[in-house]
Amino acid sequence: MSVRITVWDLPLRLFHWLLVLAVTGALVTINLGDSWMEWHGRFGLAVVGLIVFRLAWGVLGSTHSRFASFFPSPAAIARYCRGQWRGVGHNPLGALSVYALLGLFTFQAFSGLFASDEIAFSGPLSQAVSYNAVNTLSRWHRQTELWLYLLIGLHLLAIIAYRLRGRQLLGPMLHGKVETTEATEPRGGGAGAFTVALIVALAAVWLANGGWLQP
Fold it and tell me: Where are its TM segments located (predicted)?
């Protein structure tokens, strides 16, 4: 007998959709020209805060928000490919996608803090490193943009493929519930954990904004 349980807690769902907005904003503004670069930087800072929140929530959050609950080990991936994997939350291949996206978003956001186009925009921490480091990180920041589009495209294709197979991925990320034979509700991730994760994220944004640097 299946029951509906809350798998994705509210902080995780808010993180997901706010990250969608922030990344979309960053990708749109980078293509609108120099006059939008300040907004590109602001969206980048938002991504930094959201990523740091997710990293904290991956330790402090409820059961299925924790990274340990969906680590895509080779054995788990093999069981999934053989049709033997059973569970709620991210399946092993979905977990690979999550880890890849988080890793690339992290690299893009943090490299952008040190990047500069030498014309319209310099990252808030570009003064904290050498000229050569700025050039290197700026180059990497631009070069990995293509990988960002690729991974986002694969993520969207996976959502469409699951939908065609009669499985819904967007719904649970809106309301958080899935049908399962596992009747145990997730544990952890209370108000105290949320407060700590939020404080850590806000501190990261303050540090990333470079207000502590000497002019």
Answer: 12-33, 39-60, 93-115, 146-164, 191-208
